[in-house]
Specification:
The complex is a heterodimer of chains A (185) and B (464).
Chain A (H helix, E strand, L loop, with lengths): L43 E5 L2 E7 L7 E7 L5 E5 L14 H14 L1 H7 L11 H10 L10 H13 L24
Antiparallel strand pairs in A: 1-2, 2-3, 3-4
Chain B lengths: L12 H17 L6 H13 L6 H12 L5 H30 L18 H17 L6 H5 L1 H8 L6 H16 L11 H13 L12 E17 L2 E12 L6 E10 L7 H7 L5 H7 L1 E10 L4 E2 L6 E6 L2 H8 L20 E6 L2 E3 L7 E4 L2 E5 L12 H5 L3 E9 L2 E13 L2 E6 L10 H24 L3
Helix pairs in contact in B: 1-2, 1-4, 2-3, 2-4, 3-4, 4-9, 5-7, 7-8, 8-9, 10-14
Classes of the chains: A alpha+beta (185), B alpha+beta (464).
Chain lengths: 185, 464
Amino acid sequence: MFRRSGVNNPFDVHGRSALPVWERSSAARVVPPARPRKLAKVPFVELADGRLQGVVSSGSDTGRVYVSSIAAGTYAFACSTNNNRPCGGARGSFCNHIRALVTEAFLQYGAQRVARYLKADTSDTEPDAHALVAAMAATRPAQGDTSAAAPVFSRLLRHLAYLEREPATGPLPEMQWFPPTRAAA
Amino acid sequence: MRTDLLGDPIDGLDEALAAVDAFDDALVTGLLRPQPAQTDGLAALAAALGGTPLAALVAEAADKAAAGAAGEDHFVALAAGRTALLGSVHDALTARVREATGRPAAEEPAQPVDGEEPVANVLSAARAWLCDLARAGWRGIDHELVGGAAPVVSAMLPEPRLRRQATLLDGFSAELAASCPGATLERVPVRRWADLWSRALLLTLPGAARTPAGSTATGRLLPLGVDVQEHATAVQAQVHAVFEPADGTPPRLVRAAVSAPKPDTVVGAGLWQLLRPRMSLLAAVSEGRAMELDAMPVTAEGDLVWDDARARAGEPAEPFATARVALAAAGDPVTAPLDRHPARLAVPVLLEGYAAEREDDGPLTFAVAGHRLAVDTDRVPAAGPLTPEAIAASGACLGLLRWDAGEFLLQPLAVETTVRKKTVAVHAGAWAGGTTDKAGVRAEKAATDAVAVLRERAGKLLRS
């Protein structure tokens, strides 16, 4: 579906752009679209508020989800249920929810964007998720507090609420500023 | 089509854009404590509007802003001045396109009708946020400032009359959020963000989003192609078509749009799935059919406000045949005054007899009649059979003529290529109504699964 284009990638700040002058373009592509991925395990992931954060489905209870996060730079991590019970696996080091979160973030945003956002030093140009998790774990990151769980969960609900909105046929002229792009993250 | 005219200089264009750029550069570092270069930029905008009805208003606003003392009304005046300048650029470009296509213009739209105004509170909250942005500048944005848009967007989304404002603010703020902190940005999309900022600011004014009084359309609709627009949380598909009125009046170009808010993980074929149930025209496009319209509402700008109850499937109609037979005589719609901006240009054209060229890794161009027209293959949606390779190998192209960053561009909607000595048409929007194409079916399945998971999660979590 989304093919990676080595040339003409409008997001490649060092390369040549398909558009003549990016700074003077009204249709400059700034944020690449999410790449398609399976959502069952990790229905929601985002790079926001200085963290890689998201919601991971519980393997055992379909009504339960875990809110997991890793902070950019420090890699301070947190994982708790939506009812604010701490995750049993996230004591001292990354739990499986956090590992799944990183894996799915790589799929959705591309490895480089995730690594760059987390300020992870990856000499590899195309780091893989396991290597990144191992590298971050090796720095012995601190366990963060779970105070971010509530806002992340409410962002998930806000995200899901988009599905509840009906399509409409009144024209939206402003969407002319948002062309699609074939270049994914 | 006289493509040779597209490369010729346009009188006054560079001067108008220089004033726009000078103002846009002032927004990069923000107007809280303007530096001399920024006050020059503000003065350039005011000077460019000298002699216009906005002159005094913009001059005063520029003075206040230069002193770091601009209030909301001043920011609105600056945004209005910038919009007026780009409106004049739009008009000059439209006149040039009309010379090139030789097509007639449709009638000027009437003045907008007075309508019920949506709630003002949320619009003033949006205005306050946008003014804070202008003070901070693109280099001054941080998560806290950008996050201020979220409650505004959440309050707007449930209100259908605020869909335009909500969709714009949502896309704009998501882009800013992904670019935080502004201080460490490698480069800034200077014109784009100034465009979005001024547009959003004007849309907070009462009546700005009002559409001009419309009428109804009865007759035959012949689709030319589909243009898709998307940001992380919204999608719009716009069908461009030739409308032949049943009363025998001249044919004209119209558009029919369908849009929806969406979660950012719904992409590709999932976009078609969201939009398809709301507009039967998408299926007609995939099947290569015309549609018969019966009193379909249409705005004075040529936008059909689609209602499935007012349309039924018609005879087969191939877009290239439509373009060859009917496009040259179809009148172009006229853009409403406040909507005039170069980014709005999307003029259906048929190009034949060109040489597709690509130098090294540069963009694809079509050389025709001594002029090289850049081809924006990136705008072709990924969830469709049309590829940059097919475009490069094509002999005829149906597309939208656009203008961006100082030059005209062609956005392909469909191409004709030769496969085993037979001419085959490939349409960007072929999957809009559904597909039996192998890759298409796979994409559809993946998208169905993604939405099913989200709906299941929403069912459990939103109501628990």
